[in-house]
Amino acid sequence: MKLSHYKLALAMIIGGGLGAAVVQGLHAQAKPPVYLIALNKVKNAEGYTKQYLPKAQAAIKAHGGVYVAGGHGTQIDGTLPTERVVILRWDSMETLKAWHDSPQYQAARRIGENYADLNTVAVNGAAQ
What we know:
Elements: H1 3-29, E1 34-42, H2 45-62, E2 66-71, E3 84-90, H3 93-101, H4 103-112, E4 116-117, E5 120-124
Antiparallel strand pairs: 1-3, 1-4, 1-5, 2-3
């Protein structure tokens, strides 16, 4: 075999290995996000909007949360609050918990509790 054939064979082996590593990396990154659903019963709309929301939204943004939906909910079943429904997306449960436990959000939450009953639940996204 000529030297050029060895180089070609070596290049193919290296390329195949790199390709496999890239595919494995992409699969690892395809981890589904985590969603936080908030069903808040607002008791004082003005205080909620002016005092709580700006601080809560700043904390969410600072910690990597993304708004997916927000506003008045439409009751389908049950008796859950529908005045303010928010869905946020996070990269992982760890990032969601880091935001929730942060001093920035905890300060906002203490304000928000004066204006609304804050009800939240987190759920893992479905793998596609």
